[in-house]
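Intended use. Records like the one below are meant for learning the mapping from a protein sequence to its folded structure. Do not use them to infer anything beyond what is encoded.
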Amino acid sequence: MKKLVTGAFALTCLLMASKASAWGLTGHRVVAQIAEQNISKKARKEITKVIGNQQLAYWANCPDFIKSDNHWDHADSYHYVNIPSGMNREEYNVALENSSDVNMYKKGLFFMKELKENKNLSIETKREYLYFLIHIMGDAHQPLHVGRLEDLGGNKIKVQWFRDNTNIHAVWDSKLVDFEGYSYTEYSNVLDIFNKKQNEELKKGTFLDWIYESYQAANVIYGDVKMDDKLGYRYHFENKYTVESQLLKGGLRLSKVLNDIFG
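Structure written out for the chain above:
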């Protein structure tokens, strides 16, 4: 039986696997599984050289798991980018380009570039960068990971979800996704149903464009909720298709990025 884990980073991911956030376990695995179903044979072959035969979904939550390890404190900011609400596209572009070098946008670009162009990366570094890239592409499609600094992407906006105290960020991270009761493979299969032409339309654009879509969705979310709101069936019904669209686009766009790097 082949070894599933090689290197300290991967081992840390497994040891820390009891804690997670951001799209929740299910959401990140849905994104990764949809990508798995849409990467080219060549890309899959090259990725196998980096992470072995294990599927992408297996490692999709790794960057969340390591948050419990103080050694990775510096990577917390890789999961989000803070942008003030209400900006037009030009203002947004300027704000994002002038943002920190260690946020989701800048680190996503860094990992893409390094994996594609840097031929001197060690196998362990390639593996680490790939795990982060898989995860970041998921986070980039969770709208409140492109949220406001003052409320920490909705973490400070307290709400009730079916009478349980929580916050709007947690509702979008996991509660709306898990409400359907699907496993990640079931969810990926019911979402990934379009033909090649339709998928190509969903994959159009750049990383900058994709984060802007999430930013626009975040503005709508902020406008629809206020402190201490009681959320339940209606909120799920009104936002179900936005959640599912973001999961699907996240997976298809991750496949596009991986095909570009490894294909």
